[in-house]
């Protein structure tokens, strides 16, 4: 993979650019994709942002979502944008399979590709890119890209709002160990531009429906198991549970973190029955490596302290399997 700076040469003339991110996008995924799109368009390029699927409701306020395409809902327009593009930007994922139904189209694309991402172990398929797992978020990397390219003068409030959202969500509101001095420098710079950070926090975190709040209460009482012996906890959600509370896309976001607020708990897992598969989310504190755990047992990956995976078995079978492997895989 060539360094991302080599793409600056290509950006000297106006390009048609296809931007995408991972399926089930989070704040960092949408934030980095839209920030990059705003930035590229300001420079006279024609950038189209395509999400592989729907975006959660708590991100719908973000500047640029109205023009964004959803591949699952608008496959033809999305594939046309891909076919027309001179250049493809992939942000916040490092393996085409993370784009679900877009995977085969990205694989078949012949245009140069650019990766900007902070997950571990990137696939070696991109032409240009930055893969820096030490970075807090892809949004921080898009900020670095902008500063390295044209610099500060092209930052505006739309870009700032997108970047702030991704850094805020990926750092757990600036509390995870990845929250480096460079993150605070960046945020200081965005605030100096006039960014209203409280409004963004409110839009993302204080936008729950009443049923989402009640669902959380139900889940913590009925669907959370704590394994004191292993400093670990598990939450599982069946399709039936989610139908009962009319759970929407994005309503389970952050749920995996709750058990980590129990003193002594250092490993938390969320198992969700979703569509035709079981989705797993893992979070840890300290030196329990959930990236390796997710890769080894659940065809997944991510970061050292936050990862995800999947299972083709049923919900109960997956829960039983998880409990079996937990006895040999837990924080020491
Ligand atoms: P989440 O639990 O929020 O879905 O994901 C946590 C982290 O792991 C995110 O950075 C996400 O990109 C990554 N991740 C989630 N699911 C998968 C997966 O199935 N495969 C890989 N490689 N990474 C995943
Ligand atoms: Mn991210």
What is the element layout, followed by pairings?
Elements: E1 2-3, H1 7-10, E2 16-20, H2 27-42, E3 46-51, E4 69-70, H3 75-84, E5 87-91, H4 103-108, E6 113-117, E7 128-131, H5 138-149, H6 157-170, H7 181-192, H8 197-205, H9 210-222, E8 224-227, E9 232-237, H10 239-244, E10 267-274, E11 277-284, H11 290-298, E12 301-302, E13 306-311, H12 315-326
Parallel strand pairs: 1-7, 2-3, 2-5, 3-4, 5-6, 6-7, 9-10
Antiparallel strand pairs: 8-9, 10-11, 11-13, 12-13
Helix pairs in contact: 2-5, 2-6, 5-6, 6-7, 6-8
The site of manganese (II) ion has 6 residues, from loops.
In short:
This protein is α/β, with parallel strands linked by helices and 332 residues long.
Describe this structure in words.
The protein is an alpha/beta fold. It folds into 2 domains: 204 residues, inorganic pyrophosphatase (n-terminal core); 115 residues, Diaminopimelate Epimerase, Chain A, domain 1, CATH 3.10.310. Helices cover 37% and strands 19% of the residues. The protein contains 12 helices and 13 strands. The strands form 2 sheets. The chain has a 7-stranded parallel sheet with strand order 1-7-6-5-2-3-4, with helices on both faces. The chain has a 6-stranded mixed sheet with strand order 8-9-10-11-13-12. Strand 5, helix 4 and strand 6 form a beta-alpha-beta unit. The longest helix has 16 residues. It is globular, with a radius of gyration of 20 Å. It starts with a strand and ends in a 6-residue tail after the last helix. The model has no long low-confidence stretch (mean pLDDT 97). Bound molecules: guanosine-5'-monophosphate (5GP) and manganese (II) ion. Guanosine-5'-monophosphate (5GP) binds next to strand 12 and strand 13.
């Amino acid at each position: 993979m060539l360094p991302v700076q080599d793409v600056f040469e290509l950006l000297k003339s106006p390009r048609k650019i296809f931007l995408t991110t991972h399926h089930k996008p989070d704040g960092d995924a949408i934030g980095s994709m839209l920030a990059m799109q705003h930035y590229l368009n300001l420079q006279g390029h024609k950038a189209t942002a395509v999400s592989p699927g729907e975006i959660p409701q708590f991100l719908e306020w973000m500047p640029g979502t109205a023009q964004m395409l959803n591949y699952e809902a608008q496959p033809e327009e999305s594939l046309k944008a891909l076919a027309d593009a001179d250049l493809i930007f992939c942000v916040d994922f490092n393996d085409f399979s993370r784009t679900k139904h877009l995977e085969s189209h990205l694989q078949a694309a012949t245009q140069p590709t650019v990766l900007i991402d902070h997950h571990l172990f990137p696939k070696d398929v991109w032409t240009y890119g930055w893969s820096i797992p030490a970075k807090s978020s892809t949004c921080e990397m898009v900020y670095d890209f902008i500063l390295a390219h044209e610099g500060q003068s092209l930052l505006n409030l739309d870009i700032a709002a997108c970047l702030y959202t991704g850094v805020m969500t990926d750092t757990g509101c600036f509390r995870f160990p990845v929250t480096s001095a460079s993150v605070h420098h960046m945020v200081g710079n965005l605030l100096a531009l006039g960014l209203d950070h409280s409004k963004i926090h409110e839009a993302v975190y204080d936008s729950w429906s009443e049923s989402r709040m009640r669902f959380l209460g139900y889940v913590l009482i009925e669907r959370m198991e704590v394994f004191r012996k292993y400093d670990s906890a598990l939450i599982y959600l069946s399709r039936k549970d989610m139908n009962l509370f009319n759970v929407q896309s994005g309503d389970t976001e952050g749920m995996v973190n709750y058990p980590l607020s129990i003193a002594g708990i250092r490993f938390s897992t969320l198992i969700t029955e979703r569509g035709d598969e079981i989705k797993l989310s893992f979070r840890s504190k300290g030196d329990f490596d959930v990236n390796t755990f997710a890769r080894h047992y659940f065809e997944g990956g991510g970061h050292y302290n936050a990862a995800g995976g999947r299972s083709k078995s049923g919900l109960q079978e997956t829960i039983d399997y998880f409990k079996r492997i937990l006895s040999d895989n837990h924080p020491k």
